[in-house]
Amino acid sequence: MKRILLKKWGLPLALLAMTMLLLSGCQSVAGLDINKALVQSMTQVSGESKQTLSIELVPAEGVVHPEAQRLIEQLNSLSLTIDSAKVQDQGNMSVKGAVKYKEEQYPFHLSLDEQGMAIQLEGAKQPIYISTESGALSGMYTGEAAKYEDQILGFTKQAGEFFFKHLSNPKTLTVKQTQSEVFGESLSLTQLHTEIRGDELLAMVKPFLTSVAKDEQGIKDLIGAFYEVYYPIMQEAYSYYDDYYYEDYYEDEYYDDYYYEDYDYEGYDYEYDNSDDTADRGFGLDLFSISQSKPVVVATMTATIQEAIKALLTDYDANMKSLLEETPELNVVLGKDTVLDLDLYFDSKLQIRKQAMELTIALPASKDFPLQSVKLKADTEQRNLGATVEIDAVDVTSGVIDYFEKPMTPGEMLRNFESDSAIYKLLKDDFQFTYKNVYLDPHNSYYGTVVKNNTTFIPLRYLSEELDAAVKWDAASKNIVITDDITGREIRVTPDSKHASIGGKAVVLEQPVFVNKDGVTYVPLRFMSEALGAKVTVEEDGWIFIERP
User: Fold this and answer.
1) Choosing a second label site near 478 at 20 to 30 A (CA), which of 100, 356, 429, 535?
2) Which residues, 6 or more positions from 383, have their beta carbon under 8 angstroms from its beta carbon?
3) Which residues form the Copper amine oxidase-like N-terminal domain (predicted)?
4) What one-character-per-residue DSSP string does 398-434 give?
5) Is 143 within 8 Å of 114 (Cβ atoms)?
């Protein structure tokens, strides 16, 4: 039996995520050209906005485990307020706001430009910086991609128009004139209100697919536009990959020695393929690699899309019924209690100036997931849409913390925050950012512990590195210097001596530090652990548990 290839939760989540898109299919209502207004909103490249976003997890009826209840309360205390978001263009933006968690506010300021993203958190000594060269921002619209801005926006508009014309109006849809406040200014706006239930959302899919299937020319036009916009981008990526992959990797001496000298090809039936192998290089460009001919690409992709839609529509109702029977949870998620309540406010230029959204997602009863629903609420105001906007850049002139430049320990990251700041306390106490634990079996030589004169010793470097401490040799004083990762204080020990110091204060060990015949330095385990802020516990079976908060 044919089936719709959707995973258990993939369908409801995908459909709920598409709700805004489905709404965008509204035809003209009460003189408001909704399609035109929403297409226009998709192609806005500059503007200012502010927003609030909150989440509410509604517990299931009955007894909820205390730990689950505590987690629900913590998540319900989470909210986001954006006081000022500015978009200058697709590659430059800034956001100022605060995250609220457990009644505490955590202000932040971030900005993005072609070089990277800077994030200033209140209480931080220096902003966090993520360079575009690090690759961490690869999914964002930065760097070289910005030069294709006009082409991408043009395609976005055409794609929006294509999808919107095939989508029908939700059952609940009203339009009226109203006065509403935006950024403190009372404006005369057109309010569009809609409510979409989960069962209605599911029912809108089949008509949409049926309508698209009939629009062969529309599909061809869309694929042609896609080709013209993205083919140059893909070719550029292809060229970059050639330069990097073949020059820096395949010409590497190790690669040549191993793959060409040591590998035995005898008996391997290799058929040489001189076709373009872009698809094998991780770009998924197999269709575009076959031919640079636009007509070929358009024809091939149109046929593929039409065949896929035809397969979905074949026995669609029966397959959907079967899916809902086999996965009864979907009847709840996509039922009448899942509701999107949305208000959009348009000005005379058909610009969305204000939005109010509340989404309730009903959830099936479960012992492992004691929730009956999740509610998301978001309110947004916008101004200066399409106007000249200058972002509020984060000040990076006094230096930054580049977390991607080199690996950083928890202590190094934590020391970037003032110890009395709210974010410091959150990271250390609530999120246990510095927590570490080490288990040792004293009866197993693998862990390196030894007992001398009733004192358990451990290799100094092993324990220090387990607790993120740095170790170095001070030739002048003949001391080994261990720097605590969290506090930054120095611990000094001397081989073959009981004398040591912690943060400059002299201490005397019960047994001296020693170096074994293999040149490994051993220190008393309890002394070293406690000097680095950890607690040592010996369990009943003899295992040693070292824990740092």
Assistant:
1) 535
2) 47, 48, 49, 182, 183, 353
3) 449-542
4) T--EETTTS---HHHHHTTB-TTSHHHHIIIIIS-TT
5) yes
